[in-house]
Amino acid sequence: MKLPLFISRRYFFSKKKKNFINIIAIISMLVVSIGTAALIIVLSVFNGMEDLLRSIYGEFDAPIQITLKEGKSFELTDDLKYKINSIDGVMGITEVIEDIALLKYHDAQMIVRIKGLSDDFIKEKRMEGAVRQGKLAFYDGDRPLAIVGRGIQFKLGISLRNEFAFMEFYYPKNVRPGTIDPSKYYTHSILLPGGVFALEQHYDDNYVFVPIAFAENLLDYKGKRTALELSIEDPERIPEIQNQLKAAIGDRFNIRNADQQHEDLYKTLKIEKLFVFITLSLVVAIASINIFFSLSMLVTEKKPDISLLFAMGATPSLIRKIFLTEGTLIALIGAGSGLLLGFLVVWVQANFGLVKMGVASAVMQSYPVKIVPSDFLFSAISIILITFLASIQPSIRAARQSRSLRIK
């Protein structure tokens, strides 16, 4: 065992007496440990929330979505479909028409987002796990059906059992000035509800999925589409396929993967995670002031020991290393125990879900968490660096004290 480590270990783990300095050092170590554990737990919750959002949106969003950069809709030509289908890895194209309309059911009404989808959406079974009533289908024989969000169902009192109550959709038309007939101001179509989905509150309260032919007729989108959603054979090839699509169909389209479709949300989560990391690191930095004071007092208390070591031939460098090692011991024990405690808490939550979200309609009953090795690495580096910096000044002071003894 090297001499600085041997002496600093004896100072820290001395069994002969536990004085005030030892107590401060232990308190410093505990604060570092608790701060490190809190950092790991909070970062793991952010990771879990990010994964939860990806799993929720993954049922709704396509792996790749194509929309116009400027404008609302575009002509879907055979040439455009051929260029997309010719790219290796593209399994299918779901045509999309999305717009806002008025939905009326009995005497209740509300504004909803109609999303007309082609049959490829049903074949992909993308939202099959989100259907709570009825089935994921746009047709019952030749009869078209709608799939409504659960929030819309509750607000309008929609029943799948009543085959005589239709959902009525109204969409405003572009009419010439001077038109007197009120029926010319809007298009009107009816549809039976065939299923109810529950995915996420925003979607549940706003979206109605309908056959694309119904949406095309109601919204007057003849031959036009607002988006194309692609199913991909190998998810790992998505960036490569995006680049190929950009080269094939030109710059007038936005070609987004699943994360890019909610880019602002994920960016906000990452910023919040960064600020939480910085905030908790500052808490540990404040706690490290205790390390500074405990080492400063230890230097004063061990002045006779420093004199003895100097008399035995110790150099100022050796004295400095002894007190730096003392601070490093506190940092390593505090950070190590904190990382272990944080890991155990996150593991228990991930496997047993002891902490509940407390929301009856929550997608998950307990808080989601996820262990990411990089969080442990960066947390350990930052905590050890902070506590090490707090140990530098007392160790320099001890080395200077040995120099003053040499002069005397």
UniProtKB/TrEMBL annotation:
Naturally occurring in which organism (per UniProt): Reichenbachiella ulvae
Membrane topology: Multi-pass membrane protein
Protein name: FtsX-like permease family protein
Annotated localization: Cell membrane
Keywords (A to Z) from UniProt: Cell membrane, Membrane, Transmembrane, Transmembrane helix
InterPro entries assigned to the protein according to its UniProt record, in alphabetical order: ABC3_permease_C (IPR003838), Lipoprotein-release_system (IPR051447)
Pfam families: FtsX
Annotated TM spans: 20-46, 274-300, 330-350, 376-396
Origin superkingdom: Bacteria
Domain ABC3 transporter permease C-terminal positions: 279-402
Presence of keyword Cell membrane: yes
Family per record: Belongs to the ABC-4 integral membrane protein family. LolC/E subfamily.
